[in-house]
Amino acid sequence: MNIFKEIGPLRAYLDNQRSIGLVPTMGALHQGHISLITRAKKENKVTVCSIYVNPAQFNNASDLEKYPRTLDKDLQMLEEAGCDVVFCPSNEEMYKGTARLHFEVGPAGEILEGEFRPGHFSGVALVVSKLFNIVKPQRAYFGLKDFQQFVIITQLVEELNFDVTLVPVPTLREPDGLAMSSRNVRLRPEERRNASQIYQSLLTMRKQLLEGMPFHEIKAMAQIFLQKHEIRLEYVALAYRQPFSILNDQRDVSNSVILLAAFVGEVRLIDNVFVP
Ligand code: AMP
């Protein structure tokens, strides 16, 4: 496995490669990330994993500071997974000072995560654009746990004509249903037990929706259920997947998704389920 901290040598190494799969991550890797690596390995000659905690996509200084960083363990996991190349640049290498460009990501990026994390998708769009220009992958792999992010990156690729195929990868979960996330290591034991109720509530909401219960009632019940498990809901919403938009009239819920963000203790987690 080749490890690069600088853009120049990475570019020289990848020059003339015609089958590159890129897996962008912020490190603190878990099996969810590894499932993206495994998929990329199947479909490309060279799999590149980037590990970079991108300050531009954090709207909260303490979240950025507390974001787990476990580079040695990450490198070991990537080696075992058969990853070919790791790109782990410094802030200086990526931004040479501060990030000046900002992206207007449009209506799909202004709701939900965009509303509660102002500037987040601008930072995501910036770093993903940079990674696409640096690595020039033929395929790039993103998890559906961050569904809205996948929507925004799809728009980015369309609008800027990046010559890359995006590959969505299903959410990998712990045995109790909790979506794997780098932030899960910050949960205290009791919080970790409670956190599994997030996925349970999403499954219940989907069932109730398919039975015809109005979404505002479903939402109210979910809020009470989660509160009982000491989980504070930030948002829960029903949206069309394509075009991504909040669904107010639920007569046709096919091709939709229920998304939520919630705090378990101090840790903010997101998850979603597709409907039907
Ligand atoms: P992150 O390091 O959190 O930025 O995640 C890097 C990539 O891994 C993103 O495309 C995420 O959507 C994806 N990812 C994170 N958690 C999971 C998971 N549990 N299952 C599948 N993909 C995931």
What features would you describe in this structure?
There is one protein chain. 41% of the residues lie in helices and 21% in strands. The protein is of the alpha/beta class and 276 residues long. Helix 7 crosses helix 8 and helix 10 runs antiparallel to helix 11. The chain is globular, with a radius of gyration of 19 Å. The mean pLDDT is 97. It binds adenosine monophosphate.
What is this entry, summarized?
This protein is of the alpha/beta class. Helix content is about 40%, strand content about 20%.
Uncertain ranges: none
Structural class: alpha/beta
What radius of gyration results from the CA coordinates?
19 Å
What molecules are bound to this protein? adenosine monophosphate
Task: Please tally the helical runs, counting DSSP H or I stretches of 4 or more residues.
Answer: 11
Features:
276 residues, alpha/beta, six-stranded parallel β-sheet, four-stranded antiparallel β-sheet, 41% helix, globular, binds adenosine monophosphate
